[in-house]
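Support case: cytidine-5'-triphosphate complex. Customer-provided input:
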Amino acid sequence: MKKILLGITGSIAAYKSADIASKLVKLGYDVHVIMTESATEFVAPLTFETLTRNRVYVDMFREEDHRQVRHISQSTESDLILVAPASYNIIGKTATGVADDFLSSVLAAAPAGKVIFAPAMNVNMYHNPILQENINKLTKLGYRFIEPEEGMLACGVLGKGCLRNVPSIIETVEGFFHDKLLQGKKVLITAGATREYIDPIRFISNSSSGLMGVSLAKACRDFGADVTLILANSHLNIEGVNLIRVQTVAEMYQAAVDHFPTTDLMFAAAAVSDFKPVTYSESKIKKSDTGLVVELERNTDILLELGKMKQNQLLIGFAAESENLIPNAVGKLNKKNLDLIIANDLSNFATDDGKVWLVTSETAVELERKPKLQLAYDIVKMILNMTNNLSGAK
Ligand code: CTP
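Agent response - structure generated as follows:
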């Protein structure tokens, strides 16, 4: 069981730490809490003792068992130290080497790579160059930060400084524990639904949400890859990747061709419009009584073109089929010069979970239905097994 030390400092956002603690416990982590004295002014330690079923530490001199140097053992025994909310003060203390209470002493004894700070404070404090310099210094040393959000702050001002939303914090924690299977590798992903415009407001598109591609981008990022995600018309957000938002096939094609030569592993997860209107009307098309015929022509097949350019890249496509799933997927694998194709039936479209087959010219491996983020982790791990850990790639 992974042990997480949750450090809580004096901020009104300390009440959100209860939700963080509760969610981490439900995910199976062994959560231990250290609060600063000022954090206890906002929330009672009892809240966290009840949620985590572990003793909460505040003061290192009120130790019952002095045979153990508690701040050292807490640092070495935990797999991750998450400070949420992290005040201006605790970031400043860690950056300048001040250890004058339990939490700052634990942080002083911990390796940088084990620590994540989720800052929360007033907007002016957040933008204070002293804090920004401290964050830069700590980041260079290997500490990680979860950027705060914009929102209505406790002081009644609108600005950046709100503790990041709890699901994003949990996602970062989960990502921290994934093996760095793709460390040093460059991954390129296309995702979302392209649009081909008929006039300034009407277009041809499809119902793909982009969730599968975004989930793959998150999984590859968490496995340590340097990820570029070319995302078409999706409301989804992602951090820690090079995100290129596009609308049309032409834009997606250009971005893909620009990045493909330096890529190790590519997933084409986008639902691309196979056709585009022959003519585009600069002004909005007015309705007429006679109806409207829109003439369509073939669009560029991005994946087919990348298959022609392929050198050492591992090239992976998707096949969305309503019948003959595996034979049709194998047909696309061969036609587009792919190393592997992920076959799914149309029921996976615009849904939160999915079930897929990983198809090569020799085999088809079935992966069970799961939420797409979990499925993405399984897909990446299985592909690395099937392709001998990217040995064919650069
Ligand atoms: N693809 C692409 N560019 C296109 C069409 C598809 O890059 N113009 C990619 C998709 O991202 C996917 C794979 O090709 O990885 C297969 O897409 P799919 O829509 O299943 O098949 P198509 O090749 O379009 O063939 P069909 O629509 O006839 O099934």
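The longest strand covers residues 314-321.

Case will auto-close in a few days if no follow-up is received.
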